[in-house]
């Protein structure tokens, strides 16, 4: 796969230059951008790296690559980015390249485990300590770290306090995140502005709620999480599956608010999404498609159908384009044939394997098993110190009886502490049994 030439930062872009995509070029009255070049394709399923799109804005007067960011926006590019495990046993991203621009929403899509969140974490500087990355990442054409307030990251999980109301959560967050140089009235005004942008006015006095208490809906929780992050007016916003767990209507409302925010504020927004519906897919300006850690397609979302069709994978009528793309590039469920049912392992084999699995589980669970082991050693040292060298008289007989009774009771209580491990093994055993039937 050829290495993509990325657009570089242009300090003073011309407003007459066409935006990303043919629709904007048509509005300016200029020539339509050329058709996306295609690479040799051996098959999108058999060779994920075989499909690639290189699409950029082109200044037709000078014939050079340009980019057209909003004034004061953040243009982020990444080229030949690799992410591997620290021990070098696994490679998650294989030399991926791309870019995101102000005022646009870039959707990062792909099968589960293809590296979508890893790419987002790498660009946001949140990569796990067990992973290491290399490659060229630039902010507005320069190699620099993202400063506080420049970027924001919305995780997949909604980290919210269940007992607070929506208004309280936003007001408290505004007072914490915004600088002390701002007046309290200005902070509250900024909070109210964010509330309006995310459409949370009707839920201001409702408690957030949680697992055991009823509160706001799932879509409102997601919009609240985004609202808390945009209080500082970041120029670059990372979203990890903002539509996860939402129905199609809630997903559309969330992404529609995000797209409006990008257009109005000139934010650069990158969102990891998983199988969006047609209405949500039409909101995205750009599409970044990954499979097995490799770039499959990068370009305007509106051109993705044409790209796959030109490479022999047209989208059937009445099918969601995003579903079609994922079916085409997903290799996780290709089976060479139906597995023939065989007899289960012998009893001795099961005992050996389960014992080994339990040992590995206990060895790696530092917060539970190793902590208990340390407590047991401490208790044994205390008992040994208390009952050390107390002689052979009548009083020593009573002391020995007390020690035996205390030790037997303690051992019983300590044995009860291991009961959760049996529950865990029981659940795993039920799952194994269901899978084997």
Overview of the structural elements:
This protein is α/β, with parallel strands linked by helices. The protein has 2 domains: 76-337, P-loop containing nucleotide triphosphate hydrolases (Rossmann fold, 3-Layer(aba) Sandwich), CATH 3.40.50; 347-429, no CATH class. The chain is built from 13 helices and 11 strands. The chain has helices at 22-28, 116-124, 166-177, 184-198, 218-229, 248-265, 278-281, 304-310, 321-329, 347-364, 366-386, 394-416, 419-436, and strands at 57-59, 64-66, 76-85, 91-100, 105-109, 131-139, 151-154, 236-240, 268-272, 286-291, 294-300. The strands form 3 sheets. It has a 6-stranded mixed sheet, with helices on both faces. A 3-stranded antiparallel sheet has the order 4-3-6, covered by helices on one side. The protein is extended, with a radius of gyration of 29 Å. The two termini are 43 Å apart. The model is unreliable at 1-70, 335-341 and 431-437 (pLDDT under 50). GO terms for molecular function: ABC-type transporter activity; ATP binding; ATP hydrolysis activity; transmembrane transporter activity.
